From TrEMBL:
Keyword Secreted recorded: no
Gene Ontology cellular-component terms listed: membrane
Transmembrane annotation, as ranges: 23-45, 66-87, 99-125
A Pfam match: MS_channel_2nd
Full protein name: Mechanosensitive ion channel MscS domain-containing protein
PANTHER family per UniProt: SMALL-CONDUCTANCE MECHANOSENSITIVE CHANNEL
Lineage: Archaea, Methanobacteriati, Methanobacteriota, Stenosarchaea group, Halobacteria
InterPro entries xref list: LSM_dom_sf (IPR010920), MscS_archaea/bacteria_type (IPR045275), MscS_channel_2nd (IPR006685)
Keywords: Membrane, Transmembrane, Transmembrane helix
GO MF entries: mechanosensitive monoatomic ion channel activity
Residue span(s) of domain Mechanosensitive ion channel MscS: 114-155
Length: 191
């Protein structure tokens, strides 16, 4: 009985060593790939941060860091999937890629209004006609722009602060001129 168990353990050890010899070139290739990919990802992230700093100089560093983090997540995920393919685990890489796609689709659907506000916020932050201190009419709200953030804008309306989502504002807004403000004041006095 003991000899049978010893033969099974010995055979398993020899199978393991044989399989390790077969897999060793793929493992070494994968490790070299990880080293080179890590250097490349660091270089790409350095360039992304540099470009963001130059294109959005006045913006909060939080916005730039957010974009850089999203780029980093995508790059490292691609490196991980590529590594799995190199070491011979293509099926796992394909499954993870598919699962990540479905998760991303669900997250983007669940956060679609937040994404719409953020995209509109980028446009409003870059628009020279929509700045803090400007009198604007946005939908049914007329007031002075107090602050513009990535997802929302704060308007001062009759001493109160009104917060609106940027997607709502970006759909239809207009800057009020002095003539518009005078006409609106006359309308409010007569009514």
């Amino acid at each position: 009985m003991f000899a049978l168990q010893s033969d099974i353990v010995t055979q398993a050890f020899f199978d393991f060593v044989a399989n390790l010899r077969t897999a060793l070139p793929a493992i070494i290739s994968g490790l070299v790939f990880l080293l080179l990919a890590g250097i490349l990802v660091k270089a790409v992230l350095f360039v992304v941060k540099l470009v963001l700093k130059r294109t959005l100089p006045g913006e909060s560093p939080v916005y730039r860091q957010f974009v850089a983090t999203i780029v980093a997540v995508f790059l490292w995920f691609a490196v991980g999937l590529s590594f799995l393919s190199i070491v011979g685990l293509e099926d796992i890489a394909a499954s993870l890629g598919t699962a990540a796609g479905f998760v991303a689709l669900g997250v983007s659907y669940a956060t679609s209004s937040m994404i719409a506000d953020a995209v509109a916020g980028v446009y409003l932050l870059r628009d020279p006609d929509f700045m803090p201190g400007d009198a604007v009419e946005a939908g049914d709200t007329t007031g002075v722009v107090d602050t513009i953030e990535l997802r929302k804008t704060r308007l001062l309306v009759d001493g109160d602060v009104v917060v609106r989502g940027n997607a709502e504002i970006e759909k239809k807004w207009r800057k009020l001129t002095d003539a518009d403000e005078i006409a609106q004041r006359e309308e409010s006095v007569t009514s």
